[in-house]
């Protein structure tokens, strides 16, 4: 158990940057000499419209069972979180913040949408007048009849709606994989993390190990399940089902390096457009898990979306844990020895 | 929901519907107040997603896994007691400890298998050896340790193959120290705040707890003339357990809070009283040569050790179920780093 030993079996690698820190070649470190580039997701939540096409596509493609039909009252989110039967989860957050903050930087300077709206029904192909405006008797001061205004009927201007499609992060240093005693969880040649369902014995160790609360046990089945980044589709050169189905390209799939570059550009673009809230989450190889294979562009702090603000892979401290346990074992032996030594009278 | 349950905070169990807030304004749902002590740190302000936990709740069953932690400690401690008793000519104590170790480790293996989602696939644990997985290390450790305890017990009962028996007893004693302490790494090597944050002290807590449990068993079984080492082990074990637990709580920061609330709090107080009381009784029983006092001390020590394991288990689960324990320390870390 020398921490400097490097063993490659089932990704059970110890030492160097194999437990913590940047690791530019995850697949190589896991024992793939000629691995394809690392693949991942960049989920740009600034363009997510909350349609849940990803959730549906994922369920369909991966034959994920139904996970309970429940109305939660959490905005439009009745899925609640990732788990054994939810591999994509769209979060909905309603905030009292200026509407403008959500503007994704799409320029419409040359089009006056409000002027266009007043012409509703006056030209061919548009719905009749009043189709979207409130009837005259119910119109408020702030939103007079016949005109569309950015104000809510009660005159509130500050509302924004954040939507974000969450998924397994396919961590560079994946705690779930590190702690799996059977080798059921393994690193693929694409640098992703996948459970082998024919090996998992449902010990449940990976569940509390994941710092993001992703992987979970299917009760009636006993084994654990999570996003595979559509390993079967990747193998034949297809993109994952969620990315394929996303109508706004909020979910972008590709080589991680390329996605990281694109994401930097996107943040710069949003900042230039005045959306200063925009930030990347999980893109940095220097973070506590060595960077996520699936990272995000968020418009608020990660915890607002139910994501941990500064996750650290628990196995970073494992060498230290073993050291303390060894010391405790020696202390126990000494304690026993002390119990048998007669005090001199 | 049947009927309304109106509290000061509004209607209990009602969904926030369109009033639902997120961000700092929403805070988290209020926890039921623990009895007794005040929280050590003032209520922290933090954001969460509708108060939902960040982590997934551990799927381990309390009886199986807390029981596993307890029995592993009992077995490991007993193996040490058995080896010492063998060497110093205390046959009754030795036999009780050997039988205790073999019985406890068999039960703990049964608990481990029972907890699996697919018990029939238990042997997949031995598919690989992964030092990064404490459960893998533990499985291999038990694979070596359990047969040794059984050989030690069987040769003692059969009064045969003395040499094999001594070797097995000695081997079990060496591995027993690992069996009693590795379980601390098992729970600490997770993202669960109240387990992970205590990773430095928890092995010592478990070592002390295992020693006091084994001492309890020895006190129950051995006559006063042979129980001297068990009495000393009770005192030393209790001191190690209680001392390192205090140290752990002081160093854990916010993650110590779940240990002071609700069920874990109750279990911990119970374990402290039983362990400290049991150790004191053990000393008195030695002075008075009283079998009944020794039996009472033994029972108290065995129960106290079990209560501690259940407290640790439930505190961890509670810390995983409240986003506060995940978010607040991480946010503080980020602020410190000045991001
Ligand atoms: S997010 Fe969790 S389940 Fe996904 S790879 Fe990382 S540790 Fe494993
Ligand atoms: S539940 Fe399955 S995948 Fe998870 S750690 Fe155990 S064997 Fe590995």
Automatic annotation (TrEMBL), chain A:
Residues 121-131 have a biased composition (Low complexity). [4Fe-4S] cluster 3 binds at residues 168, 171, 176, 210. Keywords: 4Fe-4S, Iron, Iron-sulfur, Metal-binding, Repeat. GO terms for cellular component: cell envelope. Binds 4 [4Fe-4S] clusters per subunit. GO terms for biological process: cellular respiration; formate oxidation. Its cofactor is [4Fe-4S] cluster. This is Ferredoxin.
């Amino acid at each position: 158990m020398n921490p400097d030993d490097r063993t490659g079996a089932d990704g059970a690698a110890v030492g160097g940057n194999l437990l913590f820190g940047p690791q530019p070649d995850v697949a190589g470190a896991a024992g793939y000499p000629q691995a394809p580039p690392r693949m991942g997701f960049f989920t740009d939540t600034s363009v997510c419209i909350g349609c849940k096409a990803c959730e549906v596509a994922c369920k369909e493609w991966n034959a994920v069972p139904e996970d309970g039909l429940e109305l939660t009252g959490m905005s439009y989110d009745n899925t609640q979180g990732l788990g054994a039967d939810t591999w994509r989860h769209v979060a909905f957050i309603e905030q009292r913040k200026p509407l403008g903050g959500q503007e994704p930087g799409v320029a419409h300077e040359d089009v006056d949408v409000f002027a266009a709206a007043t012409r509703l029904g006056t030209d061919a192909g548009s719905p009749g007048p009043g189709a979207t405006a409130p009837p005259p008797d119910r119109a408020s001061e702030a939103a007079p009849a016949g005109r569309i205004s950015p104000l809510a009927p009660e005159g509130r201007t500050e509302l924004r709606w954040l939507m974000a499609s969450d998924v397994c992060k396919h961590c560079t240093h994946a705690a779930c994989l590190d702690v799996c005693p059977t080798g059921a969880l393994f690193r693929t040649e694409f640098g992703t993390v996948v459970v082998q369902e024919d090996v998992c014995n449902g010990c449940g160790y990976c569940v509390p190990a994941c710092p993001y609360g992703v992987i979970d046990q299917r009760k009636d089945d006993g084994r654990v399940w999570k996003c595979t980044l559509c390993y079967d589709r990747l193998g034949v050169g297809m993109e994952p089902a969620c990315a394929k189905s996303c109508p706004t390209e909020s979910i972008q799939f590709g080589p991680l390096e390329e996605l990281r570059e694109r994401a930097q550009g996107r943040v710069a673009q949003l900042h230039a457009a005045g959306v200063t809230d925009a930030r990347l989450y999980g893109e940095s190889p220097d973070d506590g898990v060595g960077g996520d294979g699936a990272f995000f562009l968020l418009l608020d702090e990660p915890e607002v979306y139910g994501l941990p603000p500064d996750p650290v892979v628990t196995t970073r401290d494992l060498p230290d844990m073993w050291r303390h346990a060894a010391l405790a074992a020696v202390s126990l032996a000494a304690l026993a020895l002390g119990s048998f030594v007669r005090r001199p009278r | 929901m049947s009927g309304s349950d109106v509290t000061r905070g509004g209607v209990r169990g009602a969904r926030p519907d369109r009033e639902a807030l997120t961000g700092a304004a929403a805070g988290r749902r209020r926890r039921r107040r623990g009895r007794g002590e005040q929280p050590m740190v003032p209520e922290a302000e933090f954001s969460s997603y509708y108060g939902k936990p960040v982590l997934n709740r551990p799927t381990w069953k309390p009886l199986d896994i807390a029981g596993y932690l307890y029995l592993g400690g009992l077995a490991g401690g007993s193996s040490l007691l058995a080896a010492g008793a063998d060497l110093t000519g205390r046959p009754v104590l030795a036999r009780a400890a050997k039988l205790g170790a073999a019985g406890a480790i068999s039960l703990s293996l049964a608990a481990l298998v029972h907890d699996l989602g697919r018990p029939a696939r238990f042997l997949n644990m031995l598919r690989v050896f992964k030092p990064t997985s404490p459960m893998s290390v533990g499985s291999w450790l038990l694979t070596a340790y359990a047969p040794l305890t059984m050989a030690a017990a069987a040769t003692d009962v059969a009064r045969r193959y003395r040499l094999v028996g001594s070797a097995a007893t000695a081997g079990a004693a060496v591995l027993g120290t690992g069996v009693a302490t590795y379980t601390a790494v098992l729970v600490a090597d997770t993202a669960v705040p109240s387990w992970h944050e205590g990773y430095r002290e928890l092995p010592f807590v478990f070592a002390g707890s295992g020693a006091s449990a084994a001492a309890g068993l020895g006190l129950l079984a051995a006559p006063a003339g042979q129980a001297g080492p068990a009495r000393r082990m009770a005192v030393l074990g209790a001191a190690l357990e209680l001392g390192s637990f205090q140290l752990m709580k002081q160093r854990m920061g916010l993650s110590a809070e779940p240990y002071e609330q609700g069920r874990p709090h109750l279990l911990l107080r119970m374990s402290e009283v039983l362990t400290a009381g049991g150790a004191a009784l053990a000393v008195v029983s030695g002075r008075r040569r009283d079998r009944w006092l020794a039996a009472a001390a033994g029972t108290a020590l065995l129960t106290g050790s079990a209560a501690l394991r259940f407290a640790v288990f439930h505190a961890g689960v509670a810390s995983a179920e409240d986003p506060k324990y995940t978010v607040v320390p991480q946010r503080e870390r980020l602020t410190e780093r000045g991001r």
